[in-house]
Design goal:
Elements (H helix, E strand, L loop, with lengths): L30 E6 L2 E6 L3 H4 L5 E5 L1 E3 L3 E5 L5 E11 L3 H6 L3 E9 L9 E3 L6 H6 L2 E8 L2 E7 L6 H8 L14 H6 L7 E4 L11 H9 L3 E7 L22 E6 H9 L4 E4 L1 H20 L19 H14 L4 E6 L14 E5 L6 H9 L4 H10 L10 E5 L3
Parallel strand pairs: 1-17, 3-12, 3-14, 4-11, 14-16
Antiparallel strand pairs: 1-2, 5-6, 5-8, 6-7, 7-10, 8-9, 9-10, 12-13, 13-15, 16-17
Helix pairs in contact: 7-9, 8-9
C-alpha cells in the first residue's frame, strides 16, 4: 500500500545564511554529525574512519558531473539557456558523448517561450576562436513545457564530451544563487568521479580526500563503486501536499557482478556514501525479484516496494541477478530506477549512510527519515543548533540505520 505522507511534515526552517554557498578550503575539514541509536555527537569529517566498523564494505557513486549548461542566442538576439539532461539519440551516454557531428538530448529550456523554432547559435561573448570554429547550433525537435528534445550540430570532428568542456558550464544547484565559477569545476566533483553522465554531484562524496580514503582502507574496509547518473529530478521539489502525487524521474545505474556477489554473501556491513548509492543498492532487491518472477531484470518503479508483500530473501533476489548475468555473459547490471524511499521502507542492504543535509520538504529528507526510523528532526535540530552548514557544499553526517 502506498504510504499517505504529507510533505509539510518534513519541513524545517532553513535560512539562506545557513546554505553553504562555497566549499571549505579543505574537503575533509567540514563538520561531521554522527547519529547512532537516537543519540547525536559531533566530529570533523577527517575523523570518519575511526567511526566505521572494521572489515566493512563501503560503496561510492563514481558518476562524473558534466558541464551540461549551454547558452545560445536567437537571430533576434534573445538568449536561450539549454540544460542537457539525458541523451535521446544516441541513447547510450558513452555513444552520445562520443558523437562527432550531431546528437539529440532531452533538455531543460530556459526562456523557453521565446524559442519558437529558430535554429540557435552558441553564445560567444568573449569571441573565442575555439568556440567560433565549432559553429555549434541547436534546433528544437519537440517540446514538452519547460523541457524538450534538442538536436545539436557542430563542426571540427570533436566528440560531444569535448564540445561540452569547451562551451558548457558546471550546473551547480540553483539554491546557491550564483553563477558557476572556476573553483566549481574541481570542487563540484568527487575525487573518484569517473563515468560522465550526471547533471548534479553525488554531494556526500565531496568531503573525501586521499588521506581519508587511505585511512578507511587501512582498517580493512573495501571501497567499491556503483554508478548512478544523477538527473535534474534531484532539484525538483515535492509540489503537492501528498508525496504519493510526486513523480520520480528515471535514473540509470550500473553495478558490477562482482559487487553484487559480495553483497549477496551478506558477510560484511555495508556503508553507502550518498543517497544515490542507497537508491542504487536498495533497487537491487526489486530487480532480483523481477529476475525470479520474469526471468530478467526490469527498471525499478517508484512505488514497487510498497504495493505488495515480498517473501524472497535478499540473498535469493541477488542470487537471481547473478544467475541472469552469468547466463547472458554479462559482467555488470545496467538498469534504471525511479525508486522513492520514504518512511515505512524496508532496507535490505545498507546499514550506514554518509550524507549531507538536505532541503526541507525534499524526497531526500524522506529517505533520511526512513533510514533513522522517523527520527530525522533530532538530527536536523542538532545541526541547526550547532552551526552546521547545509546542502551541497555544506557539512556531512554519518547515520546508523534504525533497527
Amino acid at each position: 500500500m502506498i504510504p499517505e505522507i504529507h510533505i509539510e511534515d518534513y519541513n524545517y526552517p532553513l535560512e539562506d545564511a545557513r546554505i553553504a554557498k562555497y566549499p571549505l578550503p579543505e574537503r575533509d575539514s567540514s563538520k561531521l554529525l554522527y547519529y547512532k541509536g537516537g543519540k547525536v555527537s559531533q566530529y570533523i569529517f577527517r575523523e570518519l574512519p575511526s567511526l566505521l566498523p572494521d572489515n566493512a564494505l563501503m560503496l561510492f557513486n563514481d558518476t562524473k558531473v558534466v558541464p551540461a549548461r549551454l547558452h545560445f542566442v536567437k537571430p533576434t538576439g534573445a538568449h536561450i539557456e539549454i540544460f542537457c539532461l539525458e541523451p535521446v539519440f544516441p541513447v547510450e551516454y558513452n555513444t552520445a558523448f562520443a558523437a562527432t557531428e550531431t546528437t539529440t538530448w532531452k533538455c531543460v529550456l530556459g526562456n523557453a517561450k521565446k524559442w519558437k523554432g529558430d535554429v540557435l547559435s552558441l553564445l560567444n561573448p568573449q569571441d573565442s576562436q575555439e568556440i567560433k570554429a565549432l559553429s555549434m547550433t541547436a534546433e528544437l525537435v519537440e517540446r514538452d513545457g519547460q523541457t524538450g528534445h534538442v538536436r545539436f550540430e557542430w563542426k571540427g570532428g570533436l566528440p560531444f564530451s569535448r564540445v561540452l568542456e569547451i562551451c558548457g558550464t558546471i550546473p551547480i544547484p540553483p539554491y546557491l544563487n550564483r553563477e558557476s565559477e572556476a573553483l566549481d569545476v574541481e570542487r563540484y566533483q568527487t575525487l573518484y568521479a569517473r563515468i560522465r553522465g550526471s547533471v548534479a554531484a553525488p554531494t556526500a562524496g565531496l568531503h573525501f580526500t586521499e588521506r581519508v580514503l587511505g585511512e578507511i582502507r587501512a582498517k580493512g574496509i573495501d571501497t567499491e563503486t556503483v554508478c548512478l547518473h544523477v538527473g535534474a529530478g534531484t532539484f525538483l521539489p515535492v509540489k503537492g501536499s501528498l508525496v504519493s502525487e510526486h513523480t520520480m524521474h528515471r535514473e540509470p545505474f550500473v553495478i558490477s557482478k562482482t559487487l553484487i556477489e559480495a553483497l549477496r554473501d551478506g558477510k560484511r556491513s555495508v556503508i553507502a556514501v550518498g543517497t544515490t548509492s542507497v537508491r542504487t543498492l536498495e533497487s537491487l532487491y526489486y530487480a532480483g525479484v523481477s529476475c525470479i518472477e520474469k526471468g530478467h531484470p526490469e527498471d525499478v518503479e517508484q512505488w514497487a516496494p510498497y504495493t505488495r508483500e515480498y517473501t524472497y530473501s535478499t540473498r535469493e533476489a541477488l542470487d537471481a541477478i547473478v544467475s541472469y548475468l552469468i547466463q547472458n555473459g554479462l559482467e555488470s547490471l545496467s538498469l534504471g530506477t525511479r525508486i522513492i524511499i520514504v518512511p515505512g521502507f524496508r532496507f535490505r542492504i545498507v546499514e550506514r549512510l554518509v550524507t549531507n543535509f538536505h532541503q526541507p520538504e525534499s524526497t531526500l529528507i524522506l529517505l533520511v527519515s526512513a533510514f533513522v526510523g522517523g527520527d530525522w528532526r533530532t538530527i536536523y535540530d542538532y545541526a541547526l543548533a550547532n552551526g552546521f552548514r547545509f546542502l551541497s557544499y555544506g557539512d556531512s553526517s554519518l547515520l546508523e540505520r534504525a533497527e
